[in-house]
Amino acid sequence: MMAGHNLVEQAMRELEARLLDGSWMAGTRLPAERALADEFRVSRGTVREAIQRLTARGLLASRRGSGVFVTDRLQTGFVSPWRQLVSDHPEIRGDMLEFRRVIEVAAVQLAAQRANRADLERLAAIVKRLRSAHGDGDRIAEAKADADFHQAIAEASHNTMFRHLHAGVIRMLREHIALNIDQMKMDSATVSATLLDQHLALYDAIRHRNADQAGMVMCGHIDFVRVRLDMEHSTEKH
User: Fold this and answer.
1) SS3 for 69-117, per residue?
2) Which residues does 225 contact at the CB level (< 8 Å), separation at least 6?
3) What tens digit of pLDDT does each residue of 151-190 get?
4) How far apart are CA 153 and CA 115, in angstroms?
5) Which of 131, 153, 154, 152 is nearest to 141 (CA)?
6) What is the pTM of this model?
7) Which of 52, 59, 101, 213 is 20 to 30 Å from 150 at the Cα level?
8) pLDDT (tens digit, 9 = 90+) per residue, 16-63?
């Protein structure tokens, strides 16, 4: 029999999984504690404590007389809990990267076609920050510039619907980018140099109006991150 603490953690993971996979969207009312306890094979008290912990994190909210509901914190929270959730659920990192591959390849191809002078100046300024952070070995500044670079690409796409979509997930993507960089510890200097080269290649493709090249480089960039994270995960197992 697992200790009480571990059972609460287990119940939390079960609840979080439903938030992550979209089974419970914002506004969804949770099943009764008894039903969840039966499903998770734990006591009602364990389920109650797990719910209380997620409520404290702003993911759930209790309404007197109505029940427990999913909040919109994942979509709109000022301090997004996505980073912690992705850390606790490494199995969804592949989904996150797959999603990024689709929207960011489209974004960079549009940016290569439509970026104006202001967009190019903004990208150039961020590239300068990336170079500086890399040269100084400042991982925090490098992660911030990395996220800003991807956001600037989305803005340079000049597609209203796409920009709204990207704005809706940009906090999540920012934290995911930072999480990826934090976890790529193997040969960190080499990884950092490769990432810088990829961003420079993206900038060059955009400013030279080469949409096909921009898309290929972005695909390679996302795939590189996936491979490195898979290597890290494999190393952690041994």
Assistant:
1) EECCHHHHCCCCCHHHHHHHCHHHHHHHHHHHHHHHHHHHHHHHHHCCH
2) 97, 180, 184
3) 899 889 998 777 767 666 665 666 666 666 666 655 677 8
4) 9
5) 131
6) 0.64
7) 59
8) 988 876 678 778 899 999 999 999 999 999 999 999 999 998 899 998
Alpha-carbon gap, residue 204 to 124, rounded angstroms = 10
Let me know: does 1 contact 39? Beta carbons within 8 Å: no
Structure tokens at 214: 């921009």
CA distance 23 to 37: 18
**Sign of the Cα pseudo-torsion (15, 17, 23, 26, in order):** positive
Q: Which H helix or E strand runs over 60? A: strand 60-63
Q: What is the length of the chain?
A: 238
The amino acid sitting at 229 is L
